[in-house]
Write a structure and sequence with these properties.
two-stranded antiparallel ribbon; elongated
Length: 174
């Protein structure tokens, strides 16, 4: 194409567009908000390296907004956030907090917290959801923090287990 040169005027020109398949899932962090967010893991299936810069994001025919992309190689995957899912709600409720003294000869304290997390899916079909929470991480050898009685096992994702689980982040893939 030919773009006229004019220092007073700016012009945006589309250099290309391509459709791709994406893996959609929701992110829920009910300790912070009851809203859930739609995230998409996309693989660059085009014939081109995606150069860094601005990109317009569409979810189906709905315009989501603009984002900034880093360089994406052929076949490389990347995540894009697609906004709030208004019909999936995640709530977290403190059911019980119990503090007891421990030991006969030494004074120690044990505190037990019990929470219930509820997910309400307003979609007609099942959805993939990553539920996040956290527990404290002790920096003192005299203080022990344990996770007890979880009804659903934590994620087995290797990257999560290696980098995020040791920091006290809890993730369930539901």
């Amino acid at each position: 194409i030919t773009i006229p040169s004019n220092a007073q005027d700016t012009q945006t020109t589309s250099l290309g567009a391509f459709d791709t398949e994406a893996e959609l899932f929701r992110i829920a962090v009910p300790m912070i908000t009851d809203r859930t967010y739609i995230r998409s893991n996309i693989t660059n299936t085009s014939e081109y390296i995606l150069l860094p810069g601005s990109a317009s994001i569409f979810h189906g025919s709905d315009y989501v907004g603009k984002t900034t992309l880093r360089t994406i190689a052929l076949g490389e995957s990347f995540d894009i956030d697609l906004g709030i899912d208004p019909i999936v709600i995640a709530t977290r409720v403190l059911l019980e907090k119990e503090t007891n003294s421990t030991g006969l000869f030494s004074s120690g304290t044990q505190t037990l917290y019990k929470y219930r997390v509820t997910i309400s899916n307003g979609h007609k079909e099942t959805i993939d959801l990553r539920l996040w929470d956290r527990i404290p991480v002790s920096r003192n050898e005299d203080i022990e923090v344990t996770l007890k009685d979880i009804s659903t096992p934590l994620s087995t994702d290797a990257l999560y287990l290696a980098s995020e689980r040791p920091t006290g982040l809890l993730r369930w893939d539901l």
